[in-house]
Amino acid sequence: MMGTSVMTMMAQEQQTEVLMPGERPKPTKYVAVEEQKEHLVFFQGFTLSVDGYGPVAMMVSDYGTLEGALRLNLKNTYFPIIEAGVGKCSKDDFNTKVSYKTSAPFMRIGIDFNMLRDKFQSNRLYLGARYGISMFKYDIAGPAQTDPIWGGSQPFSVKDLDCTSHWAELVFGVEVKIFRNFHMGWAVRYKREIASTKSDFAKPNCIPGYGYTTDSSCWGGTYSLIFDLNWGLKKSHKRGVNVEIRTIETTDNGQRTTDSVPARENLQPTTIQENGTEERQEK
Amino acid sequence: MTMGILVMATLLAGCYSNNCPLENTVTCNYGFYDTEGTAIYYSDTITVTTLMPGYKTVYTYRKLGNKTVTKDDPDAELVNQGYTESVTQQRKDTILLNQLLGASSMKVPMSFFNEEDTLILSYKSILLKDTIKIRHSSYPNVELPECGTYRFHTLQSVTATDAAIDHVEISEPKVNYDGNVNVKIYFNGVAVDN
Questions:
Q1: Would you write out chain B's pLDDT as a tens digit for each of its 194 residues?
Q2: A153 CA to chain B: closest CA distance, Å?
Q3: What is the ipTM of this complex?
Q4: Residue A105: exposure state from Cβ atoms within 10 A (0-12, 13-18, ≥19)
Q5: Could you say which of B16, B139, B146 has the minimum Cβ distance to residue A200?
Q6: pTM, whole model, 2 decimals?
Q7: Could you tell me which residues come within 8 angstroms of residue B8 by beta carbon, excluding any fewer than 6 positions away?
Q8: How far is the C-alpha of B29 from the C-alpha of B182, rounded, in Å?
């Protein structure tokens, strides 16, 4: 009796299908329909990444970095990120015999935005911005300076010049899923120096995490190895979507009603009580 | 991955360009003004010499009714002509700027390791000379390693005699390759509009 009243109310409130003349009502059964809805769980977990390009650059050129990043995934759309690492530069100019050396940590914070329309897929095309800072000391040395008119000579070597540099970056990159939680991706970065501490002796030729200061702006890049971490994620959230289970129930008077519950409720059909509350039936 | 690294290496290579300063020497810039502070073109010919460390022997030859001759080496021929030779010790000097004419400014190098430079200004139209003394500190500077090293200076004080100069003042103490006027020389007299 109670079941009939419940079904009547459901028939009024929900999608109703009327049987055609001569069509017999089918026995009641539960049919699970999995359907992706246009709704993403807000918190999608963390990713940890390391850069593969910086170490290679360090081995084959004057400047390189060792860096990693911790990134937050919000709705597969927004990715707040913290990047940290160590930058090393050791340059000796062949013509002028002037050498520049620094090795120091740096940090960047920022956010990436996934530009792909389909947020459910594991691949990403993103645009981002960063603010970077590095506090470092650098050494500079060169051949002895000789006065061409008055005469005299003095060696030139200055050590531990203090500098704090700030810069901004625009990031464009792609990221593809390789295997399970492992992704790879590359990014190009347009960097612009905002400010650096000035020294009377020399301006910093290379800033850890930024690169060379030959110009007021510079290009850089990263090749990231990315690992998805599932810290703080519920099991059913790992796929990144809410799966909806729709149950179809046929009533005695030949009407079919539908209702839905999220998948994490273990495929249990839901009925609505007279007081409007939901009650899940145990199998 | 290799392709990505190659692309990035190409992009990074694009960062390098030669942004070295156009000036390859650092000079102290002196601007010329009249007594009232109007920028002028100084019509007289100016020769600037500076005193060097150490002394030199100077041979001076005088003869009544003839111009006095000064030489760094003895000249027996002048003695044979009746000149009287006198030998003196003088501070070594060198010419920094030779016969500058009708200029509104002059660029003069500074010593790397001396605390004070002495400039002697000789004029063509007057016999008297002016002496400018500049106290300064110097330090090495590197703009970029590929540009080499420079020597910058910071002016501390400047004084001058008053043969043709009214007074001098420091307008920009930092002497570098920016090209600003570092010292203003106010000559006697007031510029007249033609």
A1: 555 555 555 555 445 556 787 777 899 999 999 999 999 999 899 999 998 888 989 999 999 999 899 898 999 999 999 999 999 998 888 999 999 999 999 999 999 999 999 999 999 999 899 999 999 999 999 988 888 899 999 999 999 999 999 999 999 999 998 889 999 999 998 887 76
A2: 8
A3: 0.79
A4: middle
A5: B139
A6: 0.68
A7: A53, A186, A188, A220, A221, A223
A8: 5
Residues B158 and A154 sit within 8 Å (Cβ to Cβ): no
Whether B86 is in a domain gets the answer no
Q: Are residues A98 and A221 in the same domain?
A: yes
Q: Are residues A49 and A177 in the same domain?
A: yes
Q: Tell me, what's the pLDDT at B130? A: 94
Is A50 contained in some domain? Answer: yes
CB contact under 8 A, A156 and B149: yes
Is B128 a domain residue?
yes
Judge if A90 and A165 occupy the same domain: yes
Inter-chain touch A140–B113, beta carbons under 8 Å? no
DSSP strand pairing (A99-114 vs A78-92): antiparallel
Whether residue A207 sits in one domain with residue A167? yes
Residue A257 belongs to what domain range?
2-39+240-280
Q: What is the CATH number of the domain that holds A53?
A: 2.40.160.20
Pairwise CB contact (< 8 Å): A93 & B16: no
Instruction: Summarize pLDDT for A75-98 with one digit per residue, the tens.
Output: 888 999 999 999 999 999 998 999
pLDDT, chain B, mean: 88
Question: Is residue B149 one of the residues assigned to a domain?
Answer: yes
Residues A50 and A157 in one domain: yes
The contact set of A with B (CB < 8 A) is 52-53, 56-57, 91-93, 95-96, 98-100, 140, 142-143, 145-147, 149-152, 154, 156, 158, 184, 186, 188, 200-203, 205, 211-212, 214-215, 218-221, 223
